[in-house]
Amino acid sequence: MMRILPEQGSVARIMQLSKSIAILLAGLISTLAGPAFAEPPGRVVSMNLCTDQLVLMLADPGQVVSVSYLAARAQDSLLANQTEGLILNHGQAEEVLPLKPDLVVAGIYTTRFTVQIMKQRSIPVLDLPPAENFEDVRSNIRAVAMALGVKERGEALITQMDQRISDLSARVSGQPQSRALIYRAGGYTLGPDTFAGALLTLAGYRNVATDYGVQKWGAVPVEAVLQLKPELLVVGVYRQNAPSLARDVTEHPALRHRMPRIVEVPTRHWACGTPAALDIVERLIDQRESFLAKRPS
What we know:
By secondary structure, the protein is an alpha/beta fold. The protein folds into 2 domains: 40-160, Rossmann fold, CATH 3.40.50.1980; 175-294, Nitrogenase molybdenum iron protein domain (Rossmann fold, 3-Layer(aba) Sandwich). The protein has helices at residues 8-33, 49-58, 93-96, 112-120, 134-148, 151-172, 195-202, 222-228, 245-248, 253-258, 278-294, and strands spanning 44-46, 64-68, 87-89, 103-107, 125-128, 178-183, 188-190, 205-207, 217-219, 232-237, 262-266. Helix 2 (49-58) crosses helix 5, helix 5 runs antiparallel to helix 6 (151-172) and helix 6 (151-172) runs parallel beside helix 11. Mean pLDDT is 85; it is low at 1-33.
């Protein structure tokens, strides 16, 4: 039987593709596992708002030397009051390298140039993906706790979070879901496959963004919001005292007069996947119970 061999160029391309896949898999495994240390790191630098907050929740006193400048801004961060005395960075290599970090914590979509430089200098880097659900939150807490050398503290934080999730779930168990929609500046909404969407679901609401075909992110015009008829409109507020044309849509008179109930939530509460976001779930459940109590039987 005659065997047809691939051309030499094809073989080379296949080999190159295999090599590229192997490199990508190795990088993925390294990212998921996180850096390993003989001793806990003592000069930790975080360069991402969400990693800042996990690091600040878990680290020992004096273990962190720098966090991103966003962590110190109360409109962005829930832990701004814990950044006093820390050096603030903008994710630039020239800021981070002089600090002589023995661990850099970053988000997988931000400060990539600086991350690459850190890796070239053999500085350990922990890359974290953004959380889209509470399982992601657990994974990120474990990764940070392991890298910081505080594994037990991380597990304790997860246990506390899970207990609170269980308590909040019990409050809405067996009750009909109310219709709700998250609405942000520019008319954007967040569907159920986002962390904000997970908070809404835990609070006992059905996210009507799915009725408009939105599972993650998408824009919904005011007319469509009115047609979706949510019983609760959750308006994400960023920088309360900074008006903008993009924000005007969330204050449209038609929404303010036609929506049964509107609650404003500072976006810092759901921007990052941390246990602190459960405060918003509790507030949304309170709104739901108040609304159901007034609904005609």
